[in-house]
From TrEMBL:
EC number in record: 3.6.1.63
Protein name: Alpha-D-ribose 1-methylphosphonate 5-triphosphate diphosphatase
Superkingdom, natural source: Bacteria
Keywords on record: Hydrolase
Amino acid sequence: MSKEQVLTNARIVLEDSILDGSVLIRDGKIADISKGTVSTGEDFEGDYLLPGLVELHTDHLEAHYSPRPGVRWLKIAAIQAHDAQVVTSGITTVFDCLRLGSDEDGGFQKGEMRSMADALAQAQQEGRLRADHLIHLRCEVSTSDVLDHYEDFQNDPQVKLVSLMDHAPGQRQFQTMDQYTLYYKSKRGLSDAEFEKFVARQQALSAKYAGPHRDALAKACAERGITIASHDDATIAHVDESIGYGIKLAEFPTSFEAAEASHRAGLSVLMGAPNIVRGKSHSGNIAARDLADRGVLDVLSSDYVPFSLIHAPFVLADELEAIDLPKAIAMVSATPARTVGLDDRGRIAVGLRADISRVHRQEGIPVVRSVWREGRRVA
């Protein structure tokens, strides 16, 4: 027997418009969208009915697993805590970032991220999780052991996205040394001589490993049909390299030049939702609002603050004349879903998964009142 439910008196945010109406859900999918209010069903009282958000890049699980230096939390418990915060932010599909490659920031031991992935799979199988969790491997290509770490994921069907990163100083995110000095010298209390050696070592590792490792990982992903993301592209040469690798997602470009070239080439340009909410980058790079104003921002990511993914689209719609709410919401739903080949979600449309949320706007900040995943209420 079919299971049906009706959500009515809602401001339904479609991909290109807002409809005052009702949605019929049948067997976990959207069965009908109609204008006007009906007498039966759950009354949204004029609240927004949004598609479930699709999060492609969040390091937030890592913060739950390692909440303090040297501390490792129980994996299942960390995953559940992360999941709870994600879902109550309106996110129904989340790509959890797992870091591969041991760098000077510590990283994780070989096998540790594999164990986390196994815990994610176990938690989903046991029905502990409310969001749909997939894996995004953040591969630090300038490390000596990144390929060794990647071998642990060669046959994992949870892996749907891989980003190729190089955080060596003097390029990409750290084109200038101010932020790098703050993060690696000041915070760690390194002397001038120690910092100089540290920088030279990181640059040497990048020169030795980044190119070959980027080649090998791109090839492996292409063979498995895994979406590849670039990271911190700063120059046209970086963008050309990304195009050559078949990259579909340009994460956090650090210059207008790179962002515009990526967008023109058909890559989805991703920036941080916290950047939108704060009005600036935490690392001193370009402001995401400026990219949005130029029409070259495609996808938002909550990065390190899950709630920012539901907050940022409202900020964009309020502050930029060229971006209305449907266009802003598409940056956190339809466009990220399409970029990674998830064509069954990300929009309020007949036949798609009933991944949706009820959102009330109060004094500028959205309130997520309810969340459904495949028609089942999860928050």
